[in-house]
Amino acid sequence: MSKKFKIGIDYGGTKIEGILLDQNGKQIERKRYSYERNYNSGIETVKKLVEEFDKLSNQKCTVGIGIPGFSSKETGLITNANSLWLNDKPFEKDLQIALDRKVKLMNDANCFTLSEAVDGAGKDYQSIFGIIIGTGFGGALSYKKEIIEGSNQIAGDWGHQPLPYPTKEEQETMIDCPSMNCGRPLCAEQFMSGIGFKDRFNQKYNTDFSSEEIVQLDFDKDPRANLELSLYEDRMARLMAVMIGIFDPDAIILGGGMSNIDRFYLNIPTLIPKYTFSNKVKTKVLKNIHGDSSGVRGAAWLWDS
Ligand SMILES: [Zn+2]
């Protein structure tokens, strides 16, 4: 019986990463290359990774690619990507020509969620809501180890919806989101992404800290850091409660830089019942298991045969 290998690619804003998995999900190789931030350089870099992995495994592997935004089923063009040179390009078609095979493209938050659902923190649960909190803020849904993509291909991606039950302070922040297809005040990403979190802190206290420095301040018992992290936890509980009201997942799994803040896993679950239509909430709030590898692993799992 011949072994089937899978390639997963994570198309980042400055780097493109690839992983080669065997049929059991074991990592055989993982590589990452920088590229020039333009369309053709991105395609050439994906091609280089795939050729190297094909050679290593001595076969033509399946290829799944995690991208910012999504490849529209209607037009075949990329939409909503923050790597702007991808938008409105027939990326899937061009890759299939460059790689001489069919490829599967999926939003990167979906890839993260699939990876954690298949053999990560969510492996023992049926319904998963994955949240990525990095430079951006987004989510994705999985049920029985498959992604629910949705009619508009944005199922679970509620990061640009408004903060629920906004406080007076949040309403007075008056930030209009700069993202394409958003531009609205009270957009959750402006409060919840790593950048949003440190920007709101620095705006309020007239400081210039990174989010990591603010977390360190909290360890050093700085009351401002504790207050802002407490407010952040309450915002997250409100946002999660909305998703529990719609999808009611078994587990919510956090990824991205902000998922490394350990106090979230103690505090957020105690706040969620304040905002749900159920006084008992069984939904688990979990840290990811695969860390930075989840993007590439989930992309590889897009081919499950
Ligand atoms: Zn927004």
Task: Describe this entry's structure for a reader.
- There is one protein chain.
- This protein is an alpha/beta fold and 305 residues long.
- The protein folds into 2 domains: 6-111 and 293-300, Nucleotidyltransferase, domain 5 (2-Layer Sandwich), CATH 3.30.420.40; 123-288, Nucleotidyltransferase, domain 5 (2-Layer Sandwich), CATH 3.30.420.
- It has 10 helices and 12 strands.
- The chain has helices at 39-57, 91-99, 108-119, 168-171, 189-192, 194-205, 211-219, 223-246, 263-271, 294-300, and strands at residues 6-11, 15-21, 27-34, 62-67, 70-71, 78-79, 103-107, 127-133, 137-143, 146-148, 251-255, 284-287.
- The strands form 3 sheets. The protein has a 5-stranded mixed β-sheet. A 5-stranded mixed β-sheet has the order 10-9-8-11-12, with helices on both faces. It has a two-stranded antiparallel ribbon with strand order 5-6.
- A hairpin with a 3-residue loop joins strand 1 (6-11) and strand 2.
- Helix 3 (108-119) crosses helix 10 (294-300).
- It is globular.
- The protein starts with 5 loop residues before the first strand and ends in a 5-residue tail after the last helix.
- The structure holds zinc ion.
- Zinc ion binds next to loops.
